[in-house]
Specification:
The protein is mainly alpha-helical. The protein has helices at 2-18, 24-59.
């Protein structure tokens, strides 16, 4: 049983060595891109939410 576990992890390590890992520069660039996109989407959704809230508050305002 222990031999099978060792063989499994050897196979995992061999496959991990075959993976084409991104460079540090690529990781930093893609991380920055994702952060910019998340911030832009958050601002957009916040603006849409504020607009819808304003419209609904005008439409649902009761006289008196």
């Amino acid at each position: 049983m222990i031999q099978r576990i060792r063989d499994y992890f050897r196979g995992v390590l061999l496959e991990a060595k075959k993976v084409s890992w991104p460079s540090r520069q690529e990781v930093v660039a893609f991380t920055a891109l994702i952060l910019v996109m998340v911030i832009a989407l958050a601002l957009y959704l916040g603006a849409v939410d504020a607009i819808i809230q304003a419209i609904l508050s005008v439409l649902l305002k009761r006289p008196g």
